[in-house]
């Protein structure tokens, strides 16, 4: 296991979530599944306790800790996309698989984890600053899934 790993708390669904993420995102995999050696507050001996996995190369540990600590938008994965097709693919993989849309490129998966599906054109426009950044930002504020063509038009003025 990596020296620094993101630990994500699940209510018995860590393996399902990790397997799904590995099927959707590149450089992602489930690398180990560990079962509880004894009973614990959220489960019994033999239940899946932790799942080691990566999401886009980021090491993670899914902990089946029970219902006590649900995910919040205070943590999210930000996935940078290259074009509208890639943006649509990841957005739809999350939202159409029991998730929900939010604002400004954010969505939430069926396990409650937040994702930012962010086209490179938006990140680059905001980094430039000035009027182009302001126009891109204003356009983004009215979106759910980011529309690459609309951001490009806003940047162009």
Can you offer a commentary on this structure?
With 157 residues, the protein is an alpha/beta fold. The protein folds into two domains: 1-67, 2,3-Dihydroxybiphenyl 1,2-Dioxygenase, domain 1, CATH 3.10.180; 71-157, Roll (2,3-Dihydroxybiphenyl 1,2-Dioxygenase, domain 1). It has five helices and eight strands. β3 (48-55) and β4 (58-64) form a beta hairpin. α4 packs antiparallel against α5. The radius of gyration is 18 Å and the shape is elongated.
Short description:
This protein is 34% helix and 28% strand. The chain has 157 residues and is an alpha/beta fold. The protein folds into 2 domains: 67 residues, 2,3-Dihydroxybiphenyl 1,2-Dioxygenase, domain 1; 87 residues, Roll (2,3-Dihydroxybiphenyl 1,2-Dioxygenase, domain 1), CATH 3.10.180.10.
């Amino acid at each position: 296991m990596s020296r620094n790993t993101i630990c994500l708390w699940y209510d018995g669904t860590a393996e399902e979530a990790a397997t799904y993420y590995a099927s959707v995102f590149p450089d992602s995999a489930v690398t180990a599944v560990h079962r509880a050696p004894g009973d614990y507050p959220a489960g019994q001996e033999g239940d899946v306790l932790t799942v080691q996995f990566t999401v886009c190369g980021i090491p993670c540990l899914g902990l089946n800790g029970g219902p006590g600590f649900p995910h919040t938008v205070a943590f999210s994965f930000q996935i940078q996309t290259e074009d509208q097709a890639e943006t649509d693919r990841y957005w739809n993989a999350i939202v159409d698989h029991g998730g929900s849309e939010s604002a400004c490129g954010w969505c939430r998966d069926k396990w409650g984890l937040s994702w930012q599906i962010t086209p490179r054109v938006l990140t680059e426009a905001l980094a430039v600053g000035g009027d182009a950044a302001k126009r891109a930002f204003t356009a983004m504020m009215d979106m759910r899934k980011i529309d690459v063509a609309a951001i490009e038009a806003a940047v162009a003025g």
